[in-house]
Write a structure and sequence with these properties.
The structure holds two protein chains of two kinds.
Chain A lengths: L6 H7 L20 H27 L21 H7 L4 H35 L6 H8 L1 H4 L2 H11 L6 H9 L14 H27 L3 H9 L4 H12 L1 H16 L3 H7 L10 H11 L3 H34 L1
Helix pairs in contact in A: 3-4, 3-15, 4-9, 4-12, 4-14, 7-9, 7-13, 9-12, 12-15, 14-15
Chain B lengths: L4 H29 L3 H5 L12 H9 L2 H32 L5 H10 L5 H19 L7 H25 L3 H9 L4 H12 L1 H17 L2 H6 L7 H4 L11 H32 L4
Helix pairs in contact in B: 1-13, 3-13, 4-7, 4-10, 5-7, 7-10, 8-9, 10-13
Chain lengths: 329, 279
Amino acid sequence: MANLVTDDDRRTRLPRLSPARGTKPGWWQNPKVMPFLLVAPAVFFELLVHIVPMVAGVVMAFYHLTVYTIRNWSNAPFAGLANFRVSVDISGPVGRGLLDSFLVTVPYTLLVLAFSWVIATAAAVFLSVEFKGRSLLRSLFLLPYALPAFVGIMTWTFMFQKDSGAINHLLVDDLHVLHSGPFWLIGSHAFWAMVVTSVWKTWPFAFIMLLAAVQGVPDELYEAAVMDGAGMVRQFWSITLPQIRQTNLIVVLIVGIGTFNDFNTPFVMFGSAPPKSAEPISMYIYSNAFGQWNFGLGSAMSVLLLVFLAIISFVYLRSTRTGTEAVDA
Amino acid sequence: MRETTAGRWVRRVALTLIGIFTLLPVLIILDTSVKPLSEVQNTFSWVPKHITLDAYVQMWQTVPLAHYFLNSIIVSVCSAAISVVLATLGAYAVSRFAFAGRRLFSFAVLSTQMFPGILFLLPLYLIFINLQRYLGVPLSGSLFGLIITYLTFALPFSIWMLIGFFDTIPRELEEAALVDGTTRWGALWRIVLPVARPGIIAVAIFAYMTAWGEVLFASVLTTESTRTLAIGLQEYATRDVTDWNQIMAASVVVSVPVVAGFLAVQRFLIRGLTAGAVK
């Protein structure tokens, strides 16, 4: 018996990709099936929360979807391009408001981006040098990122209070820069209060990304530069900046889009009715959709926002990519 | 960079200024939380004249903070737990299998990160309302709907980060186990997961932080009884008298769980965040 080698025995002696002892692997462990089963739950929820609503949002933009038709979409009258026309008609109040909020969002984004980038780069460069207390400082710098966004924003709101706030106390009583403290959260000042708050909570993210990039710059490059007599400023412009270019491009894109869509800062600072100077575009869409219960109009504006961001991102990626190739060549 | 003596002083000045800007609000939170209300309403002072823990006691009565706390914990824990499982499975598939749609999957998941929240908030709200009507499952205004929403917010980053983690684990480990008769599933469970544990914990805490701090969707998808801390904390400010000392005391209590979690895993989180951007 023992010397009879059957087919079955031979099969069991082959390298067993499938479990030999005990049960055969189920169909779900077939390498042709398994990856799809593994991604299926993630795909399901992505579809439910992102993709399907996105498509629905585009469809909604073509309907007069208001508080009367919200519970029964099929009754909503088709609007054609009417919602879009209202959104971009700058002689009407809605279009005018959208343009105004756009004109708040653009400088807001550029300022937050610029300040965050400068602070983050400075911190990354200075923390890439070895010194005592460096890792403690790095952790402390990340606190605004770790704190819940609404906590940071509420704290700044408190600090910007006219009489009981820290900012006016600092400017008037400690530094004597101003004679009397202004209202920071009303009128055109509100814009600057929002910028400062946003920079505070945005720069640590840029810092995380840039620190890793700065630390990745090979030391030999600096050594060679020092031999050639380059000072620190020269080393920064000629070595550090070109070396971290790739990370810079990504940071600018992520922070730029994030700030352009920022809703938290104005909403937590001012509630649902911010001063005009501090009403960026996502806040304006929000109050049009949920304040006026006009979902068709809100969707049309959202679609315009998405198209705008897609075009900007595309142009940005295109122009910077050709730049990279030129540098590489 | 090679530092000169002048450079050292520039560094010290710059880091000090950045440090003041960054830490000032944090100090004010702590400082204000131990002041009595009368002192908070008057002109600001850096050092409290009287130190009291009254705010930490009163804040539970002023708004139903404990209730919001519980809501936030339920929502954050559930969405973090589910999202970690989904991200692990998805990332394992991308890291270990060649399948049709693999690149599309990773790209599509990442690009949802870039969409403005406001864009899918309106339709999602309407979809929830209508699903509710036809299926009888409460979605809008329920914690369940919030959990479903939040779990997808952390997915892109989590999947991205875990792919990076799994890619660093040698395939030979699993192949050896497969030869020994383990199933694919067993290999994932007993070999890959233990090795990737730091990454998985970091991803879980990231998902927890995301849910804990979200404002926009919480402002629409919750009602009075399902309100989370992100919205509930603003109630202090809508009263006749704003009890800033209580807001700051509540901020301390609300921040401790996430900040502690973040500090515990910051090394892994930073590695994950920067892995894609830094070549």
